[in-house]
Specification:
The structure is a single chain. By secondary structure, this protein is of the alpha+beta class. It has 2 domains: 156 residues, no CATH class; 100 residues, no CATH class. The strands form 3 sheets. Strands 2, 5, 6, 7, 8, 9, 10, 11 and 16 form a 9-stranded mixed sheet that branches. Strands 1-15-12-13-14 form a 5-stranded mixed sheet, covered by helices on one side. Strands 3-4 form a two-stranded antiparallel sheet. A hairpin with a 2-residue loop joins β12 and β13. α4 crosses α5.
Length: 290
Amino acid sequence: MPRLGCLALASVLLLAACGSESGGQSRGEGARWRPEGEGARRPFDLSRRDFAVLTLPGAKHAATDTWGFTKHRQGRRFIVNLRRDSWIIFKRKEWRIGQQGIENLRRDIAALSRPRGVPEPPAILVRADRGIPWSPVRRVLELLGSPDLRVESWQFATVHPNPSLAFVDACLSVRASTAGGDAAPADVVLTTADGAVRVRRGATSWDFPPGDVFEDAARLAVANRHWDDLEANLSIALPTGGLQIEVGDEVPWAYVVAAIDCAYGGGVRDAPVAAPAAAPRPPRCAVSGF
């Protein structure tokens, strides 16, 4: 079995979106994941002239990305792109996700995080391709959670839940914290075997079709039914003290985002994401924008 790792967060607190913080709650209707070509591919971010071509994950309960439309937030968000082949693209620089690439990203973000007449720290928008494995994403998120970088706000870019707004990015908004705390045993576990993902909660498990489910309508329908079942399962039996999630290294990012999305839709507001006992405890964070 692949090694399980934490979501680079010792705790994820899911809060209702509100007012100017998130642009209002945007609850998706219909399927969580849509077929290839229905707005999933977002070529670039016009506001930052960022030309990384990525296919973003879906999140049924994501909120419209309104950054830049609110005056007090203009000019203080930077974009970290994570390609499917595990490359970082930041400020038109490219590095493979490895020790040197992580250090290069740390250096550049640290330089941007230093006060330049603006009192608040910068925010980071993580635009990760839905097919990138969890392991490299985890390494980047662990870096972004480092207290020395002074990054207090993140967003995870997603496809907009409303198909008629497919040209607009949505996001999950995150607040970083250095608070500690031990994690309880996992309630939801995501693993891979033979090219397929299994999601398990207690005695119930959901086996997703192998390969890229977005290439086949029948497999995509099965995947969406599984996510609906998980969300319903969570809404019926909410865990005490929050929802613990563990993720295998090879699980694609789309599944990680969908699992958190199901937690929100199921009514979970405190969703700690645990590492194995021997793993280091990264910083806590709070997810609020979806």
